[in-house]
Design a protein that fits this description.
about 300 residues; alpha+beta; Polyamine Oxidase, Chain A, domain 2; about 25% helix; binds flavin-adenine dinucleotide
Length: about 300
């Protein structure tokens, strides 16, 4: 999102993207005929300029409001937890928003950058497949650990030590249940609250534009951290067994995904406007510098573009 937001302001920019398409952690996974959102479950809007972007995406059908009945875990129980928060989701899946925002951008997919070095008056970006790209200015919007590897010629230790990322395990469970029963009534999404294992649970089929029977469950970083190198499907089974016992969620586990770099460890630690200048023509930006949310990533990308132009 940060890279897309920056490139939308910079008509001559070119994005190198290691995956097949744009979106990063606003990821949707194809499972049989349907897709499930396996990264960000929703986005929230506080800033008026981001609101304008989301409203125009809504008019184009790439985003819509999601109004699940909300719950939370407390003392091992699921309780109702209604709130006034407006939540948006990409339609018909989360990644559709990134695709909409990236539609006029020059993205080179499946190109993994490996190293950035000074070269003449500018910079040279080396890629794993042997390609090189020369640029006057470079903006790196990967998560912080990958940024450190890319920018090993530069001094980034201060950022690396301040802005650590935490992992998450995400599972998708297919179930006939369209809601979970809390002490206060049915719910379609819940925060983990004080639960040591569950971070967020949601019924993907309750989001607008979907017609699936998928529950998506994110683990807490604390639960997955000691299991990070374990077999992902075994960890997925363990998370499913826990969710089934705590929530009474019966179904079939159909996908497990390990996010090594999911969210900032401390979202309250931020850089000014989510951007750092590393060298005369090198900047870094991303959610890890801006509170760990989609909106923060977007605003950081816009600010980075402004500084590149300046
Ligand atoms: C499980 C989970 C749940 C979340 N829930 C929410 C939520 O409910 N609400 C919310 O607002 N936010 C949520 N987030 C956070 C949100 O997804 C991020 O804040 C936002 O998507 C980050 O955008 P970004 O552009 O900073 O980084 P990313 O989305 O990580 O983008 C980085 C991009 O760089 C690419 N890349 C990485 N390395 C290289 C390389 N070497 N060469 C080329 N390309 C490379 C990646 O493929 C990716 O496309 C969640 C995240 C996760 C993982």
């Amino acid at each position: 999102m940060a890279g897309i937001a920056a490139a939308r302001q910079l008509p001559e920019a070119r994005i190198l993207e290691k995956s097949r398409g744009p979106g990063g952690r606003m990821a949707s996974k194809r499972l049989d005929a349907n897709r499930a959102d396996i990264g960000a479950q929703f986005l929230t809007v506080r800033d008026s300029s981001f609101d304008a972007v989301i409203q125009s995406a809504a008019e184009a059908g790439a985003v819509a409001q999601w109004t699940p009945r909300m719950g939370a875990m407390r003392d091992g129980q699921l309780i109702g937890s209604p709130d006034q928060q407006s939540r948006y989701v990409g339609t018909p899946y989360m990644n559709a928003l990134s695709q909409y925002l990236a539609s006029d951008i020059d993205i080179l997919p499946q190109v993994r950058a490996s190293h950035v070095e000074r070269h003449g008056p500018g910079y040279r970006v080396h890629c794993e497949d042997g390609q090189v790209f020369d640029a006057e200015r470079v903006l790196v919007t990967t998560p912080v650990d990958q940024m450190q590897a890319l920018l090993s010629d530069f001094s980034v230790d201060m950022i690396r030590t301040r802005f650590a990322m935490a992992p998450t395990l995400t599972i998708v469970v297919e179930s006939e249940k369209r809601h979970l029963m809390s002490a206060d009534g049915p719910i379609e999404a819940a925060f983990g609250g004080d639960d040591p294992v569950l971070d967020f649970i949601s019924f993907d089929g309750s989001k607008p534009g979907r017609n699936n029977a998928y529950w998506v469950i994110h683990s807490t970083p604390e639960w997955i951290s000691p299991r990070l190198e374990d077999d992902v499907s075994q960890s997925g089974q363990a998370l499913y067994a826990y969710a089934a016992s705590q929530l009474g969620l019966e179904g079939q586990l159909i996908h497990s995904h390990r996010w090594r770099y999911a969210r900032p460890v401390d979202p309250k630690t931020t850089a000014q406007k989510g951007v750092y200048q590393i060298d005369q023509g090198v900047w870094v930006a991303g959610d890890y510098l801006a509170g760990g949310r989609v909106e923060g990533a977007y605003l950081a990308g816009v600010e980075a573009a402004r500084r590149l132009c300046a």
